[in-house]
Amino acid sequence: MELYCDYRPRSKRKIVEVEHNQKWMLTASMFIAVVADVKCRIKDQSDLYIDENSSEEEVKLIIRDTAIAIENMLLEADYLGLGTCWTGWYRQKEIRAVLGVPDDKYVCGVICVGYADEKPKQRPRRALEDMVYYDTWGNKR
Ligand SMILES: Cc1cc2nc3c(=O)[nH]c(=O)nc-3n(C[C@H](O)[C@H](O)[C@H](O)COP(=O)(O)O)c2cc1C
pTM for this one? Predict the structure, then answer.
């Protein structure tokens, strides 16, 4: 996994352009793009290309592991008193071009980091009974 941190206004604007122009992103002080090194577990596939349409199992595991790392970064940022938003509304081809990320890597997310200007209430959460099965699939208590 690699991290690409940027806080320069020009680079941020270019990222926002490929993120469907979500202008609110520019209010964050810093972006962190988290990039999965797709070949870290698949050494023998030199021609591997991964984008939104890929289905390879190992690739999914690599992206899963990187997503876990992102989630931990969000938790740590929260612990440090920072606000974050995980964004991913881009096409790989476009975000790679903006960041100079090679085609054999996968941009798993761009995290906006800053100081929150609001303290939203906790959002309603689904009740556990609605989504938990016990022992076997479909079995509710
Ligand atoms: C993979 C992924 C991509 C996302 N991309 C965006 C995005 O581009 N723009 C956006 O406003 N929220 C995006 N979100 C949603 C926010 O990160 C966040 O999960 C959502 O606002 C709910 O936050 P909350 O659970 O703290 O209320 C994305 C979430 C995930 C997991």
Answer: 0.82
